Amino acid sequence: MSEHGRVLEIKPAFIGFGQLRAYGIPWSRKHVLSLIRRGEFPRQVQLSDNTVAWRLADVEEWAASRPERRPGDASKVKTKPATKTAGVKL
Predict the structure, then answer these.
(1) Mean pLDDT, residues 7-20
(2) 75: DSSP letter
(3) How many helices (H) and strands (E) are present in the chain, helices listed first?
(4) Which of 12, 27, 42, 77 has minimal CB crowding within 10 Å?
(5) What predicted TM-score, i.e. pTM, was given to this entire model?
């Protein structure tokens, strides 16, 4: 705590793939890379020869722009088309 009784929260500037889940991105590495190629997810930044990460601000901005999905939302559920079996004897 500071001398004024406030707690300062320090956020990282960059996050790696393993930290994406903590920010609401549950997908596999393959799916995330596919989204990046299609321009649907922020690009990583090369931090060193062997290290890439995302700017936290980019990920938070992307997440805020996504529609909120609620459990049981019927508009998101895929269903099979109805088959024409009524009146057909098997």
Answers:
(1) 89
(2) G
(3) 2, 3
(4) 77
(5) 0.64
pLDDT on residue 25: 92
Nearest alpha-carbon partner for 55 in 18, 14, 23: 14
Query: Which residues have CB under 8 Å from 48's CB, separation 6+?
Result: none
Distances, alpha carbon 42 to alpha carbons 32, 35, 45, 80, in Å: 9, 9, 9, 33
Within-domain flag for 80:
no
Q: Report DSSP state, residue 4.
A: T
- Kindly report, residue by residue over 18-77, the tens digit of the pLDDT: 999 998 899 999 999 999 999 999 999 999 999 999 999 999 999 999 887 666 655 554
Query: What's the CA gap between 3 and 90, in Å, rounded?
Result: 81
Q: Does residue 86 form part of some domain?
A: no
Tokens 């090369």 sit at which residue?
46
